[in-house]
Each structure stands twice: as C-alpha cells, then as structure tokens.
Amino acid sequence: MLLTFSRYQIGQVFRGENPQKGRTRELTQFDFDTVGSADTKEDAKVITAAIKGARAIGLDKAIMQINDREIFDNLGFSKEQIITIDKIDKIGKEEVEKIVGSLEKLEKVQKTERLEKIFEELKSNGLEENKDFVFNPYLARGLNYYTSTIFELKLNNTPGGLSIGGGGRYDNLIGMFAGREIPAVGFSFGVSRIIDLT
C-alpha cells in the first residue's frame, strides 16, 4: 500500500528553448502535487486548488481547460499529430487540419469516464462548468510524462488566451526512478507570467 502525501514548493526553473515574449529561459514557478493515489478525487483537488488560487489573486476570468490524454490514444493520432493539435489556439484550426487532416472525429469526442468523475467532483467542490472549468479535446500538453488527465489554466476562454499554469497526472514518472508504479498528479503556476500580467 502506497503512502499518499501532498507537497508544494516555489522556486526557479529553466527551459531548454529559445526565449520569446512571455516565455523566458528562467522563471519562478509554484508547484503543488499529490503522490501515491490514482483516485480521480486527487485530480479534482489539485484542479480546485489551482482555480481557487487564481480567484484569490483576482484572476476572475481564468478558466481551467481539461482533457484526458487517452482520448488521443483511442482515436489513433500519432505523437507528431498530437503536438500539432495542441497548437490549435496559436495557429488556428485551418492550419492544424492542413498538417493532420480533418479534426471531425476529435470534435465529436465525448468526455472519458475519468473526466466525467472529475467534472462531477469539481461541481461538488462548488465550481461551475464553462465558468471555472471546461472540456477541451484539443489540449495535449507534455507528451513525455503526462499519462491521462491534463489541464491548463488560461487567463480567459478566448482562443489564444495566455496560459498561467498547467499540470496533469503523471503516473509513470516517479516510478521510473523508484522501480515501481507511483501515481501522481500536480499543477504549476507560472509566477513570473502572472506578475507580468497583473
């Protein structure tokens, strides 16, 4: 039986990419995670904490976009296609379809059973769908470590809205180093970006 625990930290992190407006190589990040439980209630707790944290600092229009990575696997998209689909807010649907083909099957997709449970839990935590959180079947995030639930907190719900944080479930990452399966879910606020925006 795994011990379940939660932790948080704030500190400097670094990106291995070229800097651009709003994306510097060094930034301050605030992370919080729950380790040791695969229960969807832990996903909902992390998402709820992120949304309520945003509200507490005056980001009243911030909205959490949520998806399940398994949707892409079930529809047979390749890794390269998923990376392109994740850019839909930046380059637009037409440009994405030029590269990956029709998105019709993704547009018709329904929430997974896992997402349904998380959405119900969020509602029981006092949050509202389409105001505090929304299902976004195009959201993909880090392909190398997220395993199912993924979420991204946007400043507002407009296409191309700036991201102020993100996270998801990464059930395989810690286990790679521990030699056994250790489920985990977490979220990171981009403190530097939030300061720039407020």
Per-chain topology:
Elements: E1 5-14, E2 26-35, H1 40-56, E3 63-68, H2 70-75, H3 79-85, H4 88-91, H5 93-100, H6 104-107, H7 113-124, E4 133-135, E5 149-154, E6 163-169, H8 173-178, E7 184-190, H9 191-197
Parallel strand pairs: 3-4
Antiparallel strand pairs: 1-2, 2-7, 3-5, 5-6, 6-7
Helix pairs in contact: 1-7
Describe this structure in words.
There is one protein chain. The protein is α+β, with helices and mostly antiparallel strands and 198 residues long. It has one domain (45-197): 2-Layer Sandwich (BirA Bifunctional Protein, domain 2). The protein is 36% helix and 25% strand. The chain has nine helices and seven strands; from the N terminus they run E-E-H-E-H-H-H-H-H-H-E-E-E-H-E-H. It has helices at 40-56, 70-75, 79-85, 88-91, 93-100, 104-107, 113-124, 173-178, 191-197, and strands at 5-14, 26-35, 63-68, 133-135, 149-154, 163-169, 184-190. Strands 1-2-7-6-5-3-4 form a seven-stranded mixed β-sheet. A hairpin with an 8-residue loop joins strand 5 (149-154) and strand 6. It is globular. The model has no long low-confidence stretch (mean pLDDT 88).
